[in-house]
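Cross-posted from the bioinformatics board.
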Amino acid sequence: MPQQGADVNGQRLLETTAALCRIPSPTGFTRAATDFVASRFDALGLEVRRTIKGSLVVELPGGDRGAGHRTLSAHIDTLGAMVKEIKPNGRLKLIRIGGYDWATIEGEYCTVHTAPGTAGPSGITGTILTTKASFHIHAQALVDLRRDGDSLEVRLDAAVRTAEEVKALGVAVGDFVSFDPRTVLTEDGFLKSRHLDDKAAVAILLEVACAVVEGGAPLTAPTHLYVSTFEEVGHGSSAGLPVGTTELVAIDMAAVGDGQTSDEFAVTVCVKDSSGPYDHGLSRHLVDIAVEHGIDCRVDIYPTYASDVSQALRAGYDVRGALVGPGVDASHSFERLHRRSLEETTRLLLAYLGSPPGR
Ligand SMILES: [Zn+2]
């Protein structure tokens, strides 16, 4: 089915998502990632503004100035951790940033981002293991062990046996810890990686910008892109939304799994999550547009979920909010998506941006 003004480059979407996934950006430590995104907007000739707390805001060219403004948001921050404690034996205790199960980081390679001028710009690598990791020593105790902040620790890739030796490397309580995303693109168009939530959506924002600036995709209303940096901890788009925003559409991953309609090959409009129902009219409008344009779109509900829209509404913004996103399997765990869900989400957004405002 032909797509109006929607020249979507699926391979570029995959590659941009993969590039973003490889840049460490746990919540609170997002500067390198926002710099990367800002440089991509800059290359399109778009002026990038940073809010005081670090979100990126870009206005796309075009749109009828008399219409209410539309803002698309996506978050660049991801799950991660911080050094909570340096143990006497030189291992590190972690505290989580964002919501995930401890078991999903067991065995993962990680990087401790030490202060500039200490261990070098790339930090110190390590592995997250249980305190009873050796099967030959602990056997049944390892099987029975509950995975939590006390039973998991970081083994640094450095010749250290004491807390003093670790501190001498420059490692300190409060250092950010990022997880190896293990980003892999397969020949069949799957992208396996940590942090597809929500790097995939940031890549989609960049593709939308490209389609408007280079492809001439039409805008009917003034349109802004907003890249938030604190979504995983609950206050992503709670401040600094573009003035005049009346419709806020969060782009965030659709949860694929038992009992869900979402899947890895489609876009989903989420009509309700833990924060309540999204705007009925705007959600309906998005679903209608998908039908009109032959876009594979699902409607779903996420029982344990909130978004940039939830956070903006809780902060007091008077906007109509909707949530759409590409299907991601095994969210906040070993995530995977398919190129088609990136394409379908981008097509839906471009069709929305070209649709009459206030419908
Ligand atoms: Zn998310």
